[in-house]
Write a structure and sequence with these properties.
By secondary structure, the chain is of the alpha/beta class. The chain folds into two domains: 222 residues, 3-Layer(aba) Sandwich (Rossmann fold); 147 residues, 3-Layer(aba) Sandwich (Rossmann fold), CATH 3.40.50.2300. Helices cover 38% and strands 17% of the residues. It contains 13 helices and 13 strands. Helix 12 crosses helix 13. The termini are far apart.
């Protein structure tokens, strides 16, 4: 049975009188209907928790009265990280549920499989949870905005760091054999240029594989002194654990989608993860630096009320919370004009938006020519008990 979450006040649904429903699907005087697709189950279920965080934020938003007098009816389906299921669910959202737009869809394979359909139907797909660089091409994805730093930008940040920290070393990259993983590899190729073949060794894996132990063992034998893991939490955790088991003392970097303490480092072993580096946009809930920070205090209060019993150290929930804040901002900017055209226009008109749980110096900006909500990161290193930030705010052009 398809898992389905709906967030709405029943009375609002019953009393809502559609305002030009034929022209603007999903909009009534009292609600706006929005859709999403997430891997709540399957090999990427840890990052599927982004969806749970977003759903919880929308519930809190509805409890505060919604936005501009409308409650949000958010319908989310589970695609198990399977493109065919993503296609099925997105079609249902558009043709049966008649959502106004799709927000926060997660998973590069599923987004790739549904983007053309959504464009043909004129349905905006906003804040997608993928950093695949192809989605930043505004000409080919005019109805899309992205909700992660692009994997190309992130990969270049890691390549720059390693060339400074380990200038004479060889680097190993374990990557997921899809657009997600390949973007990081291509970022290293672009940054290192003619040096790439001499300095980098790679190994790929499929999301259907039960383990990547053999790939890690083979990469160690290359003599590489650094290991970059470009994948999803399940496999990142396996890689960190296996590197420790075979005594590979490499400098390990994990990509942002796998940077969660609860989702990756804890399954790998917090002790085995000491020294692991990751890029991030947000404040770590376990970092005492933010103990008295108003933004983090608000997040903790929210979490206690709306996600009680869940693991607050799993950063996927916080990413979902960030997504919810940006959804609220977009809808506020729309005012009473909830046409798809204006919703898209406002999603591409975010100016210096400060998300309270984002790191200082990192804000959100979009425009007609740039559909990326996030373009900056800072590096952090796991100490055994918390992530410790180091260095400056970086982007693809940083020195």
């Amino acid at each position: 049975m398809i898992a389905k979450w709906k967030i709405a006040i029943a009375l609002a649904v019953l009393l809502g009188s559609p305002a030009s429903a034929a022209e603007e699907p999903g909009i009534s005087e009292t609600e706006i209907k929005i859709g999403g697709v997430f891997p709540f189950s399957g090999p990427a279920s840890s990052i599927g928790l982004v969806g749970k965080g977003l759903i919880a934020y929308i519930q809190s938003l509805n409890d505060r009265g919604g936005v501009n007098g409308r409650k949000i009816n958010y319908i989310a389906y589970d695609d198990s990280y399977s493109p065919p299921k993503a296609v099925e669910h997105v079609r249902k959202l558009v043709e049966s549920d008649e959502v106004s737009f799709v927000f926060g869809q997660l998973g590069t394979p599923g987004i790739s499989a549904t983007a053309k359909y959504l464009r043909a139907k004129g349905v905006p797909s906003l804040a997608i949870v993928s950093g695949s660089s192809k989605f930043t091409d505004v000409a080919n994805y005019p109805l899309t905005t992205t909700g992660l730093v692009s994997y190309d930008t992130e990969g270049k940040i890691y390549a720059k760091y390693l060339t400074k920290a380990l200038p004479n070393a060889k680097y190993a990259i374990l990557y997921q054999n899809d657009d997600l993983g390949k973007d990081y590899v291509n970022a290293f190729k672009t940054y290192l240029g003619v040096e790439y073949d001499r300095k980098v060794v790679t190994a790929s894996y499929e999301v259907t594989e039960p383990t990547i132990d053999s790939q890690i063992t083979n990469l160690k034998s290359s003599g590489a002194e650094a290991l970059v893991i470009a994948g999803t939490p399940k496999f990142a955790a396996q890689a960190i654990r296996q590197a420790s088991v075979i005594g590979w003392k490499a400098t390990i970097i994990i990509n942002f989608p796998s940077a969660s303490v609860g989702g990756t480092l804890a399954p790998a072993g917090l002790d085995k993860s000491v020294g692991v580096i990751a890029g991030t946009t947000y404040k770590d809930v376990g970092d005492e630096t933010w103990k008295n920070d108003p933004g983090m205090q608000a997040f903790k209060s929210f979490f206690e009320k709306y996600l009680s019993g869940a693991d607050i150290t799993n950063g996927s929930y916080l990413v979902g919370y960030q997504q919810g804040i940006l959804l609220e901002q977009i809808l506020k900017q729309c005012g009473n004009d909830l046409s798809r055209k204006n919703i898209l226009a406002q999603a591409k008109n975010l100016r210096n938006v400060i998300v309270p749980v984002a790191l200082p110096g990192i804000d959100v900006n979009t425009s007609e020519n740039s559909n990326m909500m996030w373009t900056q990161m800072r590096l952090q290193r796991w100490t055994g008990t918390t992530y410790q930030l180091f260095g400056d705010v970086l982007d693809a052009k940083s020195d």
